[in-house]
Design a protein that fits this description.
single chain, about 350 residues, alpha+beta, Ribosomal Protein S5, domain 2, Alpha-Beta Plaits, 2 domains, 11 helices, about 40% helix, transferase, ATP binding, fucokinase activity, GHMP_kinase_N_dom
Length: about 350
């Protein structure tokens, strides 16, 4: 049997960081995000003739083969692949090993700021769901992905990515204590999506980064109750509500203005969010006519989103041309994770 799945990556438009514990547990967090036509992909082959399970990350050129006996230690290469397999076997297959080959690849590198790691976990779960006919709804898949990353693998991070890729489209998400999450889908007119796509530029800085240090900084900020960074987190949350209102009222100019405020507030939550390279990109883009910009994801590198008047787009592209980064065309997508049998 062969199944395939794909799950969309996301842009974090506002509120990123407020989905982290302990902030969202104490104060409640909210995030506005949207999925785009870049994906994490998975193919699973299951055959009783296989004497082992194989995990193959084609984009990373890594492969791990394991015996079909007991739980796989979560160490070494492809830990996420192993962790998803362990959960599926123990939670949904009565502990019986699965003779599978799991192939994955992603349209963006790890550390991109587009939620690629969580999206990869969701797309693997989605493929196993189709393979084994598992009774999992959207909230179940997203929560399971969160548990695998944050509990099983002990990886630092928030909650928005798992829900964004599972549900798809534009969503305003609310996060509370005890893992309470509310996903509010937003219906946006096609003309507004067209205008957003014409004004938003997606730029890869050329630097992948680990989000763990930035996330740990923000966790320490919340635990220490340091007034300035904590107030910055409150500002980030407030701006997410305002960004949602601008979007629903088709006020793209207002969204651009809020991007600028959101970026300033986000930088104030951790000294690791901006870097000399990011500042150079910002200076060049703004001097060439960009209206505002911000990092998608935790910061430190990955992808940046720039609001640019379409008439000045070529000038901005030219201003960034000699840097090591690259511009990535994209479209918004309305569908979340999908899986199918071949």
């Amino acid at each position: 049997m062969i199944v395939r799945s794909r799950s969309p990556l996301r842009l974090g438009l506002a509120g990123g960081g407020t989905d982290l514990s302990p902030y969202c547990d104490r104060y409640g967090g909210c995030v506005l995000n949207a999925t785009i036509d870049m994906y994490a992909h998975c193919t699973i082959e299951m055959d009783e003739a296989f004497s082992y399970a194989s995990f193959i990350a084609q984009d990373l050129n890594r492969q791990v083969d394991v015996d079909l006996t007991g739980a796989i230690p979560l160490e070494g290469d492809l830990m996420l692949h192993k962790a998803v397999y362990n959960r599926v076997v123990t939670q949904f297959n009565q502990g019986q090993p699965l003779p599978v080959k799991v192939y994955t690849h992603c349209d963006a590198p790890p550390g991109s700021g587009l939620g690629s790691s969580s999206t990869l976990v969701v797309t693997m779960i989605s493929a196993y769901q189709k393979l084994l006919n598992l009774p999992l709804g959207e909230y179940d898949i997203a929560q399971l992905a969160y548990d695998i990353e944050r509990i099983d693998c002990q990886l630092s991070g928030g909650r928005q990515d798992q829900y964004a890729t599972t549900f798809g489209g534009f969503n305003f998400m609310e996060f509370y204590d005890n893992n309470r999450v509310l996903v509010n889908p937003l219906r946006i007119r096609r003309s507004i999506l067209n205008e957003l796509e014409s004004q938003l530029m997606l730029y890869f800085t050329g630097v992948s980064r680990s989000s763990a240090k930035i996330i740990d900084d923000q966790v320490r900020t919340t635990n220490s109750n340091a007034e300035k960074p904590l107030q910055a987190m409150h500002d980030v949350k407030k701006l997410a509500f305002e960004m949602k209102e601008r979007l629903l009222h088709s006020d793209i100019s207002g969204m651009s203005d809020l991007f600028r405020s959101s970026w300033l507030a986000k930088k104030a939550t951790s000294n690791s969010i901006s870097t000399p390279l990011i500042e150079q990109i910002e200076d060049r883009a703004m001097s060439a006519g960009a209206k505002s910009l911000k990092i998608s994801g935790a910061g430190g590198g990955g992808f940046m989103m720039l609001f640019v008047d379409p008439l000045k787009r070529l000038a901005v592209e030219s201003a960034l041309a000699d840097l090591e980064g690259s511009i990535h065309p994209f479209k918004f997508t309305q569908e979340g994770t999908q899986s199918w049998k071949v």
